[in-house]
Design goal:
The complex is a heterodimer. In chain A, about 40% of the residues lie in helices and about 10% in strands. Chain A is an alpha/beta fold. The chains are: A alpha/beta, B alpha/beta.
Chain lengths: ~270, ~300
């Protein structure tokens, strides 16, 4: 499966899942779908048949509210049957709105409170260095999540320990819970912040473009931890959801759902 | 107690390559030897308890036994959610070592008085909570924690605590231990405040009240079996701790004895839902907040009569 196919399937499942479950956060999942698809298709070493393989690359979804995208991803990659996705949000299910590892093969770590996952990933990268192991550690954080002070504590520790085995991808969809990032808590100049914290910082002009993402991931390390600032669109792939804050909360029903499905059908790679 | 504990940790680390020590930039003159002996397993994480705690979880999930070291409330309350979500939910093998429980840092002010930590830590699923009273208890707690993969909390004192009792070869830190026998009332305590309880027992003797004293170094999981026996054996139970009266050792014991039939009444002594707004020596503050020997004795005597 190509990364484009995978991203499309993630979107299709995600729309269906939030529709059935009346779940929130669809727009955050849609912005991250391409990053996840490229990671699991072209970048990371994982084995769905052996989820705990010691030499696997580690991934932590720090923006845990986009859990629907992670479950769809892991099912499509083969960590568990796609039919399991029907249990999302249902009574007694382990597939919670925010990513949880218990009972879900392939989930490295549970998140949901922002500013945690990236910091745990940093510890995993330190552990790999300590043990002289060569696997890499990746984490996906939101740009709004970078309001959290713990992200910047992590940024300091990672550069201090020269974690060149560690990549933070920021899903820069420019929106957070109550408005645009710029209006709520302006973090610009954002790339300069990461650079000044000692990170190899790569800006991806279109973070939903797989070629551009692949290029960013394949950039040779300069010995520092790597930060990929992927400029994405919140709600990417469904025209009326793009850059529209309401879809951080609303689930597609009725005509909205039909239109979303239609648009995805038309966009099939 | 602090130095003995860290020395014991260094011994363990010598035999167990999984042991890693993280500090939140504290432990000057205390951690030096560990840092020099095991430079690749010692990290100063800076003054940043959140990343220290999350990173500890990450390292532990990769197979290490990770100790986080700080003082007072810094590596507990400051990063409570990291302890809950990252360490405890994942049952990560992280051992939280906080130096200076209760009024240990008496003159430094309320920011450095840790008086809610036991309640906060014992509330978390998977967490074991140790509040040793003397250096030997601290070392025994450390060895016990190494036998239990998963989160542990140690409240470690630092003011040269004297040895409270002889511990035989079969000593088990997870059990409630008698320090003094008595027949009327049993005082259950944790941490160095047990010294005050021992003195209080002498005052009570003068008033013809026979007080037994027990150390409860393992607040969680609580030794329910022994506690049930004690609750039936004495006319009254008393808890003493350098902690808020709610939620700490007294709270833990109340939760057990309230479920027993015909149990002895329970008197809980601790901070009365107040912050410590004045400073002073450890002894001074214990007295000021009515936890010194004479206050303990008075409180018991007035309840007994």
């Amino acid at each position: 499966m190509t990364s484009e196919d995978l991203a499309w399937r993630i979107r299709c499942h995600a729309i269906d899942m939030v529709h059935n479950a009346h779940a929130s956060h669809i727009a955050a999942a849609l912005s991250a779908a391409d990053i996840l698809a490229v990671l699991y298709t072209n970048v990371m070493r994982v084995d769905p048949q052996d989820p705990d393989m010691p030499e696997r690359d580690r991934f932590i979804m720090s923006k845990g509210h986009a859990g629907v995208a992670v479950y769809a991803l892991l099912a499509e990659v083969g960590f568990f049957p796609v039919s399991e996705l029907e249990r999302y949000y249902t009574d007694g299910s382990v597939y919670s709105g925010h990513v949880s590892h218990r009972g879900v093969p392939g989930v490295e770590f549970s998140t949901g409170s922002l500013g945690h996952g990236a910091a745990v990933a940093c510890g995993m990268a330190m552990a790999a260095k300590m043990a002289g192991r060569t696997h890499r550690v990746f984490t996906l954080v939101g740009d709004g999540e970078c309001n959290e002070g713990s992200i910047w504590e992590m940024a300091l520790v990672a550069q201090q320990n020269k974690l060149d085995n560690f990549t933070v991808i920021v899903d820069c969809n420019a929106m957070q819970a109550m408005g645009s990032c710029r209006d709520v808590m302006n973090m610009e100049p954002f790339a300069d912040k990461w650079r000044s914290f000692g990170w190899q910082t790569i800006e991806v002009a279109d973070g939903n473009n797989h070629e551009q993402l692949r290029e960013a991931f394949s950039t040779l390390s300069d010995g520092k931890p790597k930060c990929i600032l992927a400029k994405t669109k919140k709600g990417k792939g469904i025209s009326f959801m793009e850059n529209n804050l309401i879809w951080h909360y609303r689930d597609p029903q009725g005509d909205d759902y039909l239109r979303a499905v239609e648009e995805l059908e038309a966009a099939k790679p | 107690m602090r130095n003995t504990f860290i020395k014991a940790l260094e011994c363990i680390a010598g035999n167990d390559p999984r042991v890693v020590l993280l500090t939140g930039d504290l432990g000057y003159g205390v951690l030096n030897s560990f840092a020099e002996t095991f430079p690749s397993r010692y990290f100063n994480m800076g003054i940043s308890e959140q990343i220290m705690t999350s990173a500890a979880a990450g390292m532990a999930l990769e197979g290490n036994v990770v100790f986080t070291y700080s003082i007072g409330n810094f590596n507990t309350l400051r990063c409570m959610e990291q302890i809950r979500n990252d360490i405890c939910y994942h049952n990560a093998n992280v051992k939280i070592v906080s130096v200076g429980g209760g009024f240990s840092y008496g003159q430094l002010g309320m920011s450095h008085h840790s008086t809610e930590d036991i309640a906060m830590m014992r509330e978390l699923p998977h967490m074991r909570v140790y509040v040793p009273a003397d250096p030997e208890e601290a070392v025994a707690a450390l060895h016990d924690a190494m036998r239990h993969p998963g989160p542990c909390y140690f409240r470690i004192a630092k003011n040269g605590e004297p040895k409270l009792s002889e511990k035989g070869a079969d000593y088990d830190i997870s059990k409630i231990h008698p320090l003094r026998s008595g027949s009327d009332v049993c005082i259950l305590g944790c941490g160095p405040l047990l010294n005050q309880a021992l003195k209080a027992a002498e005052y009570l003797e003068e008033r013809n009240i026979s007080a037994g004293i027990c150390s409860v170094p393992c607040v969680k999981p609580l030794d329910v079996e022994t506690l049930e026996k004690i609750a039936q054996q004495y006319r009254m139970l008393v808890t003493v701790e350098e902690h808020q009266k709610a939620g700490g050792l007294g709270g833990a014991i109340a939760e057990v004895v309230s479920g027993l039939n015909n149990n002895a009444p329970l008197l809980r002594l601790g901070l009365q839902d107040v912050f410590t707004s004045i400073v002073g020596s450890h002894d001074y503050l214990c007295d000021k907040y009515e936890l010194s020997a004479r206050y303990i004795a008075d409180a018991i005597a007035s309840r007994m009569t």
